[in-house]
Amino acid sequence: MIKKIEKISIGDFIQQGDVILTYRGDIEYPNDPNMTTICHTGNNHQHSFSSPVAVVGDSFYLIGKTILEHQEHDHIELVGGEWHKTIVKEYDHWLEESREVID
User: Fold this and answer.
1) How far apart are CA 60 and CA 66, in angstroms?
2) Cα(88)–Cα(6) distance, rounded to whole angstroms?
3) Which residue would you say has higher pLDDT here, 89 or 19?
4) If both were cysteines, with which of 27, 52, 58, 89 could 35 make a disulfide (CB 3.0 to 4.6 Å apart)?
C-alpha cells in the first residue's frame, strides 16, 4: 500500500518505523550532489527511495514525487523538496541513557 501526502507544510514530518523525515520546503537544489536510493539501513532492514535522490549529510533533495519504501511498512509518496532525516531515539530515565530505536 502507498500512503499519499495530500498536504504538507515546512516543519511537517512523516515517520516510517525508526525513520523520521521532516519537510524543509522546496529549496535550492545542491550543486553536484551525491546520489543515492538508500534512506537508512538498520538491523536487517532498509528504508529506500524508489528512484535516486540527492543527499547532503542527513538531508535528501527530491526533484519530484518519490516513494519511500520498506518491506515491513506502508510505502509513502513524498513530494519534491528537501527532507531531513532523524532516527527515533528512546530514553531510559532510570539509567539516564538514550539509544536509537532499532525497528
Assistant:
1) 11
2) 24
3) 19
4) 52
SS3 of 7, please?
coil
Handedness of CA 22, 102, 36, 55 (dihedral sign): positive
Residue 42 CA to residue 97 CA, distance in Å, equals 20
Q: Mean pLDDT over residues 8-15, rounded?
A: 94
Four-point Cα dihedral 30, 36, 42, 47, nearest 10: 100
Residue with cell string 539509567: 95
Q: What is the pTM of this model?
A: 0.83
The span from the CA of 22 to the CA of 88, in Å, is: 12
Spatial distance between the Cα atoms of 55 and 62, rounded to a whole number of angstroms: 9
Handedness of CA 15, 85, 40, 59 (dihedral sign): positive
Query: Would you list the domain boundaries of the chain?
Result: 2-100
